[in-house]
Design brief:
There is one protein chain. By secondary structure, this protein is mainly alpha-helical. The chain has helices at residues 3-15, 18-26, 33-57, 63-81, 91-112, 120-142, 154-179, 185-210. Helix 1 (3-15) runs parallel beside helix 8 (185-210), helix 4 packs parallel to helix 6 (120-142) and helix 7 (154-179) runs antiparallel to helix 8 (185-210). It is globular and about 55 Å long. The model has no long low-confidence stretch (mean pLDDT 90).
């Protein structure tokens, strides 16, 4: 992948959050609870991307921002899932999960992987957990006694987006520090694919915000 194409994809990926974010803000009073929780995630992504891009333009290391974001992202994601999976897991499960992951991320950035480097340990762990929660949600759907169209469920679109994003990037997150330490065509290709998957995720978020959920 050329450097120019990689740059364009990265730019589109960074600003793609604007579409679902502004749509959610426009529809704020009509949002269902899970859509409001998604809005919190979108606002966080927007702020993090803005800070990271400013640092990048100033030729400063923006990885500390993403290291902190990993913790915020995880907490916001489990907040989206906890009500939908309450029949499968107790509130204590999500509380323990939140505390354990946060402590692990802090220990990792302080003692294992420097905060100025890509936190592959944390992002890989996060990916495994979100994939598990995503599959658990699909299982929970199968257990529902009352049928309702999946395309009218915001969490279905959010969940599908998470599954595609984190499963697609799992290997990338794991091997990033060992294989892609310097920019080259291979790293541009891999991170370019990551940008494409992130754009797809934002499109799924847009659908999740746009639809009018069935009221039950």
């Amino acid at each position: 992948m050329s450097k120019e194409l990689f740059g364009n994809l990265s730019l589109i990926s960074s600003i793609a959050v604007i579409l679902p974010l502004f749509l959610a803000l426009w529809k704020y009073r009509r949002l269902q609870a899970v859509q409001q929780k998604l809005l919190y995630l979108l606002v966080t992504i927007f702020i993090i991307e803005a800070i990271a891009n400013v640092l990048w333009l100033q030729k400063e290391n923006n990885l500390p921002v993403y290291n902190v974001y990993s913790i915020l992202e995880f907490l916001l994601i489990i907040n989206i899932y906890k009500d939908a999976l309450k029949r499968l897991f107790s509130k204590h499960f999500f509380a323990v999960l939140a505390v354990a992951f946060t402590l692990f991320a802090i220990v990792n950035m302080c003692f294992i992987q420097n905060i100025k480097t890509f936190n592959s340990n944390v992002t890989t762990t996060l990916s495994f957990i979100v994939i598990f929660l995503s599959l658990s949600y699909f299982y929970a759907l199968l257990q529902e006694e009352i049928y309702s169209p999946l395309d009218k469920k915001p969490l279905f679109w959010i969940n599908a987006g998470f599954l595609i994003y984190f499963s697609s990037n799992l290997i990338l997150f794991f091997i990033n520090n060992s294989m892609f330490t310097k920019p080259d065509e291979v790293s541009h290709l891999v991170w370019g694919l990551h940008a494409i998957v992130n754009i797809i995720l934002m499109l799924f978020f847009t659908i999740a915000v746009w639809i009018h959920p069935n009221q039950r």
